[in-house]
């Protein structure tokens, strides 16, 4: 190479480096835009329902179901970030509602616990109404998203009863060799019975989050008597079929296999925190060999096969998942039922959303709301960066419940007036 060629090449080097820098910056920006889903438009929830007087009334009375859900601009359109922030942070500026812890002895020796929070004021209908709430997997009344929702509901005139999943509360020992499972409704049923007996005039609003949504829908569908005095039910971010959900948890799309590993690790730690109880009780169906297998588990199916299915004597995983899923009971629910899911929920595969969609198509009491964004139990709202303390989920549940309460109040008044007119 001649000297003139070297000089020309040397002069072009800075321009080449500048071009490479610009290309690198462009690539990073492209990755950020794609990973944060910044180009995805905001939209109102997609609502599936039958055209009935109740559904028309609800859509008119619940504007949040028909207006855009706007997540924080910079990160709120990423289902992963919504899910991770919910898991790590719960909520921002979390209040600390004051409640009373209740202990309920069960027939098998277990002790169910729930926290009772009185309303901060009178409900706008003048009725006594209690929200009976079932949290997500391994959760309890002390979780931040539960505290935020309870505080908001109290201020709207609702008494709240929050189940603490069996074995989930820190520093509360088990009194029998059994923990909560995906679809065991015993503890939730005991809490509901207590509320009905303690407050004979109260009406119930049933609320379930994630795994709790499966439990409450299964509970209501198991026996018609479970729906007595229930005004409505709201289920948020559940998967409907444990069998189908576990099959999707082994897929890598949407990093679902990674979430599977993290949830399995959480469940392992929770179960092993009660290891002494399982080892010391003669009636335990869980032996040391089961707990040793649990130590090596890297997925929820392995956790369930080692320990969870044995709490109720299920012979195999398939039987466990089939018996624990609300999909076989939810069609028996007759009260107004709002099912809420997010399209970008990395834990609930989109194929599972066919279940609530078909249900809302067939049943006049069911409404299915599917948001474009929100992740798993996130649903944060905000302008650019910082989320608001109350989420879209918190406000929608209360707005829907308020509408149902007014609907039922008017319906009861019409019945009373009609009865009086007949007598006169």
UniProtKB/TrEMBL annotation:
Q: How does it sit in the membrane?
A: Single-pass type II membrane protein
UniProt xrefs under Pfam families: Abhydrolase_1
Location of this chain's protein in the cell: Cell membrane
The AB hydrolase-1 domain is annotated at: 130-383
- Keywords for this entry? Cell membrane, Glycoprotein, Hydrolase, Lipid degradation, Lipid metabolism, Membrane, Serine esterase, Signal-anchor, Transmembrane, Transmembrane helix
SUPFAM superfamilies, alphabetized:
alpha/beta-Hydrolases
Tell me a GO biological process for this protein. Answer: medium-chain fatty acid catabolic process
For the protein in the UniProt heading, the enzyme class is hydrolase
> Which catalytic reaction applies to this protein?
a triacylglycerol + H2O = a diacylglycerol + a fatty acid + H(+); hexadecanoate ester + H2O = an aliphatic alcohol + hexadecanoate + H(+); an acetyl ester + H2O = an aliphatic alcohol + acetate + H(+); Hydrolyzes glycerol monoesters of long-chain fatty acids
Q: Which residues form the active site?
A: 210 (charge relay system), 345 (charge relay system), 376 (charge relay system)
Name the domain of life this protein comes from: Eukaryota
Q: Which family does it belong to?
A: Belongs to the AB hydrolase superfamily. AB hydrolase 4 family.
Q: What does this protein do?
A: Progesterone-dependent acylglycerol lipase that catalyzes hydrolysis of endocannabinoid arachidonoylglycerol (AG) from cell membrane. Acts as a progesterone receptor: progesterone-binding activates the acylglycerol lipase activity, mediating degradation of 1-arachidonoylglycerol (1AG) and 2-arachidonoylglycerol (2AG) to glycerol and arachidonic acid (AA). Also displays an ester hydrolase activity against acetyl ester, butanoate ester and hexadecanoate ester.
Name of this chain's protein: Monoacylglycerol lipase ABHD2
């Amino acid at each position: 190479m001649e000297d003139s060629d070297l000089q020309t090449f040397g002069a072009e080097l800075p321009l080449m480096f500048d071009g490479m820098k610009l290309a690198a910056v462009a690539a990073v920006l492209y990755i950020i835009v794609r990973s944060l889903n910044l180009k995805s438009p905001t939209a109102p929830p997609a609502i599936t329902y039958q055209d009935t007087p109740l559904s028309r009334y609800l859509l008119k009375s619940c504007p949040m179901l028909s207006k855009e859900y706007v997540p924080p601009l910079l990160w709120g359109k990423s289902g992963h970030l919504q899910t991770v922030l919910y898991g790590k942070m719960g909520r921002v500026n979390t209040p600390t509602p004051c409640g009373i812890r209740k202990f309920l002895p069960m027939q098998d020796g277990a002790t169910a616990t729930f926290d009772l929070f009185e309303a901060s004021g009178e409900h706008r209908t003048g009725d006594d109404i209690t929200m009976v709430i079932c949290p997500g997997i391994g959760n309890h009344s002390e979780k931040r998203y539960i505290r935020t929702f309870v505080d908001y509901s109290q201020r709207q005139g609702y008494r709240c009863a929050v189940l603490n999943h069996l074995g989930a509360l820190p520093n509360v020992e088990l009194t029998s060799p059994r923990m909560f499972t995906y679809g065991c409704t015993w503890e939730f049923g005991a809490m509901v019975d207590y509320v009905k007996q303690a407050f004979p005039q109260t009406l119930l609003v049933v609320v379930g989050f994630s795994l709790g949504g499966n439990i409450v829908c299964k509970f209501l569908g198991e026996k018609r008597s479970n729906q007595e005095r229930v005004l409505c039910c709201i289920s948020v971010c559940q998967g409907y079929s444990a069998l189908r959900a576990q099959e999707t948890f082994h897929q890598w799309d949407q990093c679902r296999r990674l979430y599977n590993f993290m949830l399995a690790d959480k469940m392992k730690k929770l179960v092993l925190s009660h290891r002494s109880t399982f080892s010391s009780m003669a009636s335990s169906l869980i032996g040391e060999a089961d707990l040793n297998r649990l130590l090596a588990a890297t997925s929820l199916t392995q956790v369930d096969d080692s320990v969870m299915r044995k709490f109720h004597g299920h012979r195999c995983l398939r039987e466990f998942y089939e018996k624990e899923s609300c999909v076989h009971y939810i069609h028996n629910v007759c009260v107004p039922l709002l099912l809420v899911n997010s399209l970008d929920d990395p834990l609930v595969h989109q194929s599972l959303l066919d279940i609530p969609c078909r249900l809302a198509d067939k049943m006049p009491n069911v409404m299915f709301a599917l948001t474009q964004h929100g992740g798993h139990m996130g649903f944060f709202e905000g302008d650019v960066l910082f989320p608001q303390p109350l989420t879209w989920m918190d406000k929608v549940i209360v707005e829907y419940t308020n509408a149902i309460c007014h609907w039922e109040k008017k319906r009861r008044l019409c019945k009373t007036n009609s009865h009086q007119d007949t007598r006169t």
